[in-house]
Amino acid sequence: MDRFALGHASGSEWSQVVAECVMQIGPLPPTANIGFVYFTENFVAHATRIVSDLKQRTGIESWVGTAGAGILATGREYYGDPGIVVMIGGFPSDSFNVFTLDQSGVEGFVDSNSAWLEANGHHFGIIHADPRHTDLDTAIPTFVEATNSFLVGGITSSSDSFSQIANSVTESPFSGVLFAGDINVVSGLTQGCTPVGPMHEVTSCQGNVAISIDGRPALDVLKEDIGELLARDLRRIGGYIYAGLPVAGSDQADYLVRNLLGLDAERGLVAVAASLDEGARVMFCRRDTQSAYDDLVRMLDDVSGRITSPPRGAVYYSCVARGPGMFGADSAELRTIAEKIGDIPLVGFFCNGEISHDRLYGYTGVLSLFT
65 Cβ partners below 8 Å, 6+ apart? Predict the structure, then answer.
């Protein structure tokens, strides 16, 4: 199959930006049949016209994508500047299924697509989700189980509109594309945090409040892990120390990062932005640039070691708290990816939550390579 085609540009007029993207893409091979498009929130009001124009200019009818506070291309971040990124790939015509989850939900989707799902076995999927849908934590795992799929993607991060693209503009709970099991994809996830202490057990809790950890006041355990200097002034840990909830069946490399919502010094309580259960595992993590960079490089080395042929294209979904805010200006995060995996076509966006397999993450980056 052919290498994917890429175009990306910035400008104040959406039509001129689309035209520039299509010019960069150039003539398309006969195999080209699906497009990926991401645009900054500056262009949300023009989403329908952007998709229509892309269809007319390229002849491609199948499109997926969404809007973001920032968007990504090979070695380049558009954050604060209006921009559009477009990537076009080619697959066997019956090997992908662009979908929108409508009011019938997961059950309705499976019923109406049962023949395709059964014919194509295990699936790889790219999805874009609406942050206003409060049941994503359960809807995504349900979808994964029902479709026998591995998902990547993210939650739309535009400020006041949540347009997704699934052939046309939609604002469904989530939408995207499923690929047949014989489409070769290699994926990796990078965390933005590093554990600062050992694994612990929640021994007493109420809702999202840890009362005791390892049989001791939860706050005492937190103080011990973060060290004496930070423990002297707990106001300094905001935005730096988090709770890490390891994913069942995995090692410490795969965990869900959740904010610390509050501390009670008198009663020794720690409130976490997640529901807790007695017996659950928890660790405390720090978030800083060096930790995030080191784990990004680890993930890129791992993914590079698992590919068996040069990638044709890639998608990358990064947390809005990463990018310039963590790695610095001049597209440092995306330049690191390009330096490690090469100058391959890549698109994506900065998300309000990242999706890998069947879970919602935070502060992570999710990379997938089509080979």
Answer: 35, 36, 37, 38, 39, 128, 164, 165
Residue 167 to residues 47, 101, 233, 353, Cα–Cα distance (Å): 11, 13, 52, 23
Beta bridge partners of 174: 129
Instruction: Specify whether the CB–CB gap between 74 and 6 falls below 8 A.
Output: yes
Structure tokens at 322: 């990463």
Alpha-carbon torsion (56, 58, 63, 68), positive or negative: negative
Q: Where are the beta strands (DSSP E) in 80-184?
A: 83-90, 96-100, 123-129, 149-155, 164-166, 168-170, 174-179
Q: What is the pLDDT of residue 250?
A: 58
Q: What are the boundaries of each domain within the chain?
A: 5-190+293-370, 194-286
Report CA dihedral (29, 164, 162, 192) to the nearest 10 degrees.
Answer: -70
Give residue 108's region: left, alpha or beta (phi > 0; psi -120 to 50). Answer: alpha
Question: How many beta carbons lie within 10 A of that of residue 109, not counting itself?
Answer: 20
Select from 341, 321, 339, 332 the least CA-distant residue to 155: 321
Residues 100, 172 contacting (CB under 8 angstroms): yes
The CA dihedral of 34, 39, 45, 47, to the nearest 10 degrees, is 0
Please report the pLDDT score of residue 316 as a whole number.
98
Token pair belonging to 39: 């645009």
Task: Return d(Cα 233, Cα 276) in angstroms, integer.
Answer: 26
| Type of residue at 123 | H
- Rounded CA gap, 133 and 173, in Å? 6
Cα torsion through 30, 168, 172, 353, rounded to 10: 60
pLDDT for 247: 82
Mean of pLDDT values over 175-182: 94
Partner residues linked to 87 by β-bridges: 6, 36
| Two structure tokens written together for 79 | 């954050």
